[in-house]
Amino acid sequence: MVKYATNIRMNSPEQRPVLDDVTVVIPTLGRPILEESLSRIASGTAWPAKLIVVDQSSSDTVAGWLARLCRCGLNAEHVPSRQRGKPAALNRGIERVTTRILAIIDDDCFAEPDWLKLLRQHIYNNPDCVITGPAHPAGSEVPVSAVTGKSLSISRRPGIKFDTFCGSNMGARVAVIHKVGMFDEDPCFIAAAEDCDWAYRALTARVPIIYAPDVVVHHFGWRDADQRYSRYQLYARSHGSFYGKYLRRGDWLIALRALIHHLRALKRWVTGAITGNREQMLNGRAYLTGLLPGILDRIRHPQ
Q1: Which tens digits make up the pLDDT trace of 264-285?
Q2: Are 154 and 270 members of one domain?
Q3: Which of 68, 70, 199, 223 has a 20 to 30 A CA-CA distance from 8?
Q4: What does the alpha-carbon distance between residue 121 and residue 116 come to, in Å, rounded to a whole number?
Q5: pLDDT at residue 220, as a whole number
Q6: Is 3 within the bounds of a domain?
Q7: CA dihedral 35, 39, 42, 43 (to 10 degrees)
Q8: Do residues 96 and 170 share a domain?
Q9: Are residues 106 and 248 in the same domain?
Q10: What gap in Å lies between CA 160 and CA 60, rounded to an integer?
């Protein structure tokens, strides 16, 4: 049973100022935690012009939650989808955006009250950039992934180790999104790595990514240890597929990054085993054993 503090009720949130140039997109599988994520949006210091939730579940529950928000004055659109995978959900949401600015948050992330206003302000200050921010760990369980940097940074080209980008907390002008292109709906990216791929394409297209530590969401950890290890394995294969996609194109930077990723995974595995840090050990082992199969599979079977 997932437990988290639900301090805000969606039944009767107070009206907020509306940012008429911003749309928020949330992809979801209809998990119960989405209700809390929606309640945090509803309790923010400002509301978006529209909230679009792309729902890949077969339940009517999500539609009911959004109907409650609509009755309170928040313009919320429910988009049922039979597709699977976050990239497809994001693209179906982006296709419906009619405002100048788009913000994206995951269904297991809780936005700070001023999240949307700060994100919008950063976008106005940097209209040709993508803005991203931290996803701090929340809850009693360890999140599968978390971004926690405390310093503002600007990336203008792909990094050797990784790109500072949090796909569960991002925003940009829609024109910038279209310059980079939609998220890759390759089946290999269903589990993860769609954000790695998108950030890499943004930076190679000379679209800067600004990491703004004040644009905060909290990533709620709801998986148990076995579920997290399975997720690490899926992430590793998906990241391997990302590497394989660009290795087929002769991308030397990706080759170097893949090598460094293997070495870092080995270090995490060994360090975790020595120190007794089971989470670190499981993460390292999953990536060390999963990256190469993902790379080879993508090289042998390009989509």
Answers
A1: 999 999 999 999 998 889 889 9
A2: no
A3: 223
A4: 9
A5: 82
A6: no
A7: -170
A8: yes
A9: no
A10: 44
